[in-house]
TrEMBL record:
Its EC number is 4.-.-.-. Its cofactor is Zn(2+). It comes from the Bacteria. Belongs to the PTPS family. QueD subfamily. Pathway: Purine metabolism; 7-cyano-7-deazaguanine biosynthesis. Zn(2+) binds at residues 16, 41, 43. It comes from Caldithrix abyssi DSM 13497. This is 6-carboxy-5,6,7,8-tetrahydropterin synthase. It catalyses: 7,8-dihydroneopterin 3'-triphosphate + H2O = 6-carboxy-5,6,7,8-tetrahydropterin + triphosphate + acetaldehyde + 2 H(+). Keywords: Lyase, Metal-binding, Queuosine biosynthesis, Zinc. GO terms for molecular function: 6-carboxytetrahydropterin synthase activity; metal ion binding. One of its GO terms (biological process) is tRNA queuosine(34) biosynthetic process. Binds 1 zinc ion per subunit. Pfam families: PTPS (PF01242).
Amino acid sequence: MKQVTISKKFEFSASHRYWNAEWSEEKNNEVFGLCTSPYGHGHNYELHVTVSGKVDPVTGMIINLSTLKKIAGKIVDQFDHKFLNLDTPYFKDRIPTTENIALVLFDLLDEQIRKENGIKLERIRLYERHDLYVDVWREEE
């Protein structure tokens, strides 16, 4: 049996600060360096969302891309032009590293995509820079 996936790219801009409140300023600076600025620093993120499913014999599609854009767009809008530490509820108790941002995005997307009959979120790839990205996928159970 053949498996088919389709991927769509989304973009958003956000800022963040690396800071562990349980550590001293010295320890935070030692571990996180310039990323500890109280003003944060920003990135233009690129999110690649890959889903799988059966190709509908009538439409020829796994998922209508307008549906995927609607789902991902609502999620990405929660991050776009936000200071992630303060403007979102997701990083009150975790540092908004690229890894943690990707994990949050995966969970939010997965919850919504599961509602689409027969569609599965396979993986996401989040680029923080052109040469730095994180992949998240579900391990087979």
